[in-house]
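Kindly review this record before class:
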Amino acid sequence: MPKQWKVEIQSLQAEYDSICKEKSKTATELAYAEVISYNRKNLERELQNES
């Protein structure tokens, strides 16, 4: 039994590591999207103030 547990733990750890990498990538992309959205709204506000 312990050998099976070790194999399962290793498998789960690899899956966990993969999920963590994907989560990090998604968080970075979300941050980029938020910055772009903020910049667009700020540009619209500045252009409106100029006119």
